[in-house]
Design goal:
The complex is a heterodimer of chains A (804) and B (230). Chain A is α+β, with helices and mostly antiparallel strands and 804 residues long. Chain A has 23 helices and 20 strands. In chain A, strand 12 (517-530) and strand 13 form a beta hairpin. The longest helix of chain A is centred in the middle third of the chain and has 42 residues, at 298-339. Chain B contains 7 helices and 10 strands. In chain B, the strands form 2 sheets. Chain B has a 6-stranded mixed sheet, with helices on both faces. In chain B, strands 2-1-4-5 form a 4-stranded antiparallel sheet, covered by helices on one side. Chain B has helices at residues 45-53, 75-85, 101-111, 116-130, 145-157, 175-190, 202-208, and strands at residues 3-12, 22-30, 34-38, 60-65, 68-69, 86-89, 163-167, 194-198, 211-216, 219-225. With 230 residues, chain B is α/β, with parallel strands linked by helices. In chain B, helix 6 links the parallel strand 7 and strand 8 (194-198). Chain B has one domain (31-57, 74-225): 3-Layer(aba) Sandwich (Rossmann fold), CATH 3.40.50. Classes of the chains: A alpha+beta (804), B alpha/beta (230). Chain A binds chain B through residues 388-390, 393-394, 397-398, 401, 406-408, 414, 418, 700-701, 703-714, 793-794, 796-798, 801, and chain B through 50, 53, 55-56, 75-76, 79-80, 82-84, 87-88, 90, 94-100, 103, 107-108, 110-112, 139-141, 155-156, 159. Chain B: One of its GO terms (molecular function) is transmembrane transporter activity. Chain B: Residues 5-230 form the ABC transporter domain. Chain B: This is ABC transporter ATP-binding protein.
Chain lengths: 804, 230
């Protein structure tokens, strides 16, 4: 039995739904698209926000994690730093060091920040033990749960370094610090013992403040901390805001653009559903009159017309929820890989709230015209369609009829003025479709620019490595689930399974002596420790003029020599530093104080990749040489010749393969294309619906025109002309709004991953592109009208003439 | 005498099971002739008119109009043929409410590509001739039934068609307006216009037509020549 029974009401509703297939389809698809977009947006927002905040609150996470030089500030002095007004709680000092253990398989792990704590609890940073127990004696270690894996489990042993006499540490537990105060914990005595072996020793203090919601507040507290101890004693700090951003960023970057599409979809759905329903009522006046004449009450008429909207909308909503859940999975998977604690399913309440809201919107959109239908006087309704129309649109026919264009065209151009509200709905559908297309084109261009800017090594014509390129050691497991870089640049080889490494000096000599060389620079991609930053930091160390391999700069300049470092925006935020400040960086056993000379555009997720001159660390040697060849020299031939020389040494040479785009960019590209296609399709369906209504209303007039000699082609041109002006205006409105939307959303997406956006990413529209997008509005309108235009042209004249 | 219409064994079935709506029918109409088609409802009058106008296609037989076989033409060719050779006046006028009287009348001329100036001149001439020139800028909704039918006839004549088809031209009019339209048709016939007039009104048929055919169940039941139209 149907929802509305098998009686008269059910039959009326079913026949209404079945008779108006185009409108039914438009309502179903419009609601489906809106619901799918809203489910994806809602799921991502939940994934982006909730887990970190909950965990941080529960653990009383540290707003500032500070590292002090124990030689300049003793325990008593550090304890006093937790006393000033504004500090609500503090913990420490805890001895801290950075070390690079080697796992059971002999592979070196990333550099880890190890903190000596006698237990997981405290006033600040109540570390949550996920499995095992806390370290109780030297030789035991608790690792961050993000490091857990097949070769790193409870009971596994780690060597504290790759030296022969390194102490062995037994893994006894895994724990999570929401504020990421450390990567590993051991007893204070164990930390002191490791520091005594030459690892850097610092003192860690953890603070909570009464106000710490903004970067400005964090900077003010940091300044107070620095002032409360001897100058130079505060080596570095880590802000909880940056930790939160790092935790959220996997999903956070996608939220603004999904939200933009979601809002577009919802607004467009409301407009189209309202226009479809009011159109259905408008063209059913006689039917409504007849229903009332045979005994339907006004309330029953209202119910019948609301039901005619709710049935297809309900189907669209059901499909939209399923589609939204399917679309959300790849994006949630991306978030999960970053944060490690995100469920791959959409929150249940999102799946309930979104359809409920959609039903409410559709119901309201349908109710208003349905109430109008219910209020119509019976005789008035029946008479509609029989009496001549007067008034609306006649002036437009009079004016436009004078244009020096074929008569069917001028007749069509004036048609929208007969139904201004319907024409407005069509205009909005075209405009929103154009906005979506403009936004999506800008977004994909920007994402392409982001992808290109993140792989500067790929600009080099030839890559020369000191190891065989197919013989590199597997990369170390990423910290926090961050993806490994796809760059062809070789990581610093280490560990027990070292491949044969060519002497960099010999490789350099081979590069310099090869005919056809234009320029080159050397690079070592490695890990360094930065005072104040827990865990290791990715670093690119450069030899020679590396400008051709530079990142896009947001401020300052690229490194020009020794003593300089270029850092990404997140580094500045995490360490509460700015361009011009100095940081201490340690590569293996060598430390250097480097001045930050530039802020790089870097979207590499959790990693903080810094760039410095290799001369700062005498022990560092290039693992890769990036080469430019002269314009008349083939890069392939150059690489082949060079490979023949360096392969016997243990090295290799190749032309750089095309840059691989990051998976999150590919996912966003795919989402943008998919959501745009959905929005443009819905816009086209909106136009289709309006033109179908118009054509149905004017079928008699079209029959008259055909009877007096209008050819099918002229009929098509009449119908298409009726939407072309709307297409032009929709394009003119849609392109600038889509342009502005792109200009708003891209910086928001950048902020979500902790970076600004350079002009190469923001200024992606060219004049030709904008013109074509504007014409897209016309194409959209014409495509939407093509089907009913064909129907009008094919309609049998004699039948059309009999139609009232 | 030149034949404007020649039908040879023309039949039309609306469905395969039932009897044909028309024919088989063989009929010819000479140039300058005014043929009235009469008969009860469902006798096939409108079907015959639609076949002659090229608005419908026969199931069998040959339809020649103005020397051209039209039953095999494409929709595009039929539209072109209609606007050049046939004018139609409808029972319910079928004027476009959005357009002024002048624009309604000019429309078929504009569809053929006639210049705006030439179309306006011809429309003015017809409005003058039919006595509706004072309504040139009015919209059809403001006119009486008789005036609207005059506009319909003017529109039908704008391209100087060889054949004027009139489908119950007085069916929707009061008697005074009906007389006006009858006089108009008589004048046109006297001027040499070939007319096919479908009507229930025997008096109108007698007054306007030089020849009357009577259809019953789709078949020709009577074919009579009248005295000359006065």
């Amino acid at each position: 039995m149907s929802l509305f029974g098998t009686g008269a009401m059910g039959r009326v509703v079913r026949s209404g739904v079945g008779r108006r297939r185009a409108q039914t389809l438009v309502i179903a698809v419009a609601t489906m698209m809106a619901v799918a977009s809203a489910v994806v947006a809602g799921a991502l927002m939940v994934a982006a926000a909730a887990p970190f905040d909950d965990a941080f609150k529960k653990q009383q996470g540290a707003h500032i994690t500070a590292q002090f030089d124990p030689a300049k500030a003793n325990a008593a002095q550090l304890a006093e730093t937790g006393e000033p007004a504004g500090v609500t709680a503090s913990s420490g000092p805890y001895p801290s060091t950075a070390f690079r253990p080697v796992d059971q398989a002999g592979f070196p792990m990333p550099t880890l920040t190890l903190v000596g704590r006698s237990g997981p609890d405290g006033d600040v940073d109540r570390v949550e033990l996920k499995s095992g127990r806390w370290a109780q004696k030297p030789g035991e270690i608790v690792l961050s749960a993000s490091i857990e894996g097949p070769s790193v489990a409870i009971g596994a042993t780690l060597e504290a370094s790759d030296t022969a006499d390194a102490p062995t540490l037994s893994v006894v537990g895994f724990a999570v610090s929401a504020g990421r105060s450390a990567d590993a914990w051991a007893t204070p005595a164990q930390v002191d013992a490791l520091a005594a072996l030459g690892n850097p020793a610092t003192s860690q203090m953890l603070y909570r403040f009464d106000t710490a919601g903004t970067k400005k507040q964090i900077l003010a507290h940091r300044a107070e901390l620095a002032a409360s101890v001897e100058s130079g004693a505060l080596l570095g700090t880590q802000s909880w805001l940056d930790t939160k951003r790092a935790a959220d960023q996997g999903a956070a970057a996608t939220v603004p653009f999904v939200m933009a599409f979601g809002v577009l979809g919802i607004v467009m759905s409301v407009i189209i559903v309202s226009s479809v329903i009011s159109g259905a009522v408008g063209t059913s006046l006689r039917r409504i009159g007849i229903l009332k004449a045979i005994g339907f009450t006004p309330r029953e008429v209202v119910r019948a017309y609301v039901a005619q909207a709710l049935i297809p909308a309900g189907a669209g909503i059901a499909v939209g929820v399923v589609l939204g859940n399917l679309l959300a999975v790849p994006l949630l998977a991306e978030s999960e890989s970053v944060y490690g604690a995100v469920s791959l399913s959409v929150a249940w309440w999102v799946d309930v709230a979104v359809p409920a809201a959609a039903l409410l919107v559709v119901g309201l959109a349908a109710l208003i015209p349905a109430l109008r239908a219910g209020r119509l006087h019976t005789v008035e309704a029946i008479a509609v369609g029989r009496a001549p129309r007067t008034g609306r649109g006649q002036w437009a026919h009079r004016v436009l009829g004078r244009l020096p264009l074929p008569r069917p065209v001028t007749y069509g151009l004036a048609t929208p003025f007969t139904h201004p509200v319907r024409a407005l709905a069509m205009l909005l559908a075209v405009a929103f479709g154009t906005i979506a297309a403009t936004f999506a084109v800008g977004l994909t261009s920007s994402l392409g620019a982001v992808g290109a800017s993140q792989d500067p090594e790929s600009r080099a014509a030839v890559t020369v490595a000191t190891v065989k390129l197919n013989n590199t050691a597997p990369p170390p497991p990423p910290v926090g689930g961050a993806a490994a870089s796809p760059s062809p640049v070789v990581s610093s080889p280490a560990g027990t399974s070292k491949p044969k490494v060519a002497d960099p000096a010999k490789v350099r000599a081979a590069v310099k002596s090869e005919a056809g060389l234009e320029s080159y620079y050397g690079k070592l991609r490695t890990e360094v420790a930065v005072a104040g930053v827990s865990g290791s930091v990715e670093a690119g160390l450069y030899e020679g003029d590396s400008r051709s391999g530079s990142y896009e700069m947001l401020s300052g300049h690229w490194i020009t020599g020794k003593g300089q470092v270029v850092v990404p925006s997140r580094f500045l935020e995490r360490t509460s530093t700015k361009v011009g400040d100095t940081v201490r960086m340690t590569y293996e056993q060598e430390s250097a104080d480097l001045r930050i000379v530039g802020e790089s555009f870097d979207t590499s997720g959790n990693e903080l990749e810094v760039h410095a001159d290799m001369a700062n660390f005498p022990a560092a040697e290039p693992s890769t040489f990036l080469v430019e060849v002269k314009s008349d020299v083939s890069a392939d031939e150059f690489a082949q010749k060079l490979a023949a020389v360096v392969r016997p040494l243990g090295g290799d040479a190749t032309t750089v393969p095309p840059a691989e785009q990051k998976s999150v960019i590919l996912v966003m590209d795919a989402m943008a294309v998919l959501l745009t296609l959905m929005l443009v399709s819905v816009a086209g369906l909106g136009v289709l619906n309006s033109v179908v209504l118009d054509t149905r209303e004017r079928v008699h007039d079209l029959g008259v025109c055909k009877a007096i000699g209008m050819s099918p082609r002229q009929t098509v041109s009449l119908v298409l002309a009726s939407v072309s002006a709307i297409g032009v205006i929709g394009g003119l409105l849609g392109v600038p709004v889509g342009y502005m939307l792109h200009g708003i959303v891209m910086p928001v997406m950048g902020r979500a991953v902790g970076t600004g956006m350079p002009s190469s990413v923001l200024d992606v529209y060219g004049p030709v592109e904008l013109l074509l997008l504007g014409l897209g509005g016309v194409v959209l309108a014409v495509l939407g009208a093509m089907l009913p235009a064909g129907w009008a042209a094919r309609a049998r004249t004699a039948t059309a003439l009999r139609t009232e | 005498m030149n034949q404007v219409i020649e039908l040879e064994g023309v039949a039309k079935r609306h469905d395969t099971a039932g009897a044909p709506a028309l024919g088989p029918l063989t009929l010819s109409v000479a140039k300058g002739e005014a043929l009235a088609v009469t008969g009860p409802s469902g006798s096939g009058k409108s079907t015959l008119l639609n076949l002659i106008a090229g608005l419908d296609k026969p199931t069998a037989g040959v339809v020649m109009v103005a020397g051209r076989r039209i039953d095999q033409l494409s929709e595009h060719a039929l539209a072109k043929f209609r606007r050049e050779h046939i004018g139609i006046a409808f029972q319910f006028f079928n004027l476009l409410d959005d357009l002024t009287v002048t624009d309604n009348i000019q429309l078929p001329a504009q569809l053929t590509g006639t210049s705006r100036r030439a179309a306006a001149a011809r429309a003015g001439e017809l409005m003058e001739m039919l006595g509706i020139h004072k309504h040139a800028r009015a919209y059809p909704g403001r006119l009486s039934g008789g005036e609207r039918q005059r506009v319909g006839v003017a529109r039908a004549l704008i391209n100087r068609p060889e054949l004027l088809l009139a489908d119950e031209p007085t069916g929707a009019l009061d008697s005074a307006s009906g007389h006006d339209v009858r006089d108009l048709l008589m004048d046109l016939h006297r001027g040499g216009q070939t007319i096919v007039l479908v009507t229930h009104d025997l008096a109108l048929a007698e007054a306007c037509a030089s020849r009357t055919i009577h259809l019953v169940d789709g078949h020709l039941a009577l074919d009579t020549y009248a005295r000359a139209v006065r």
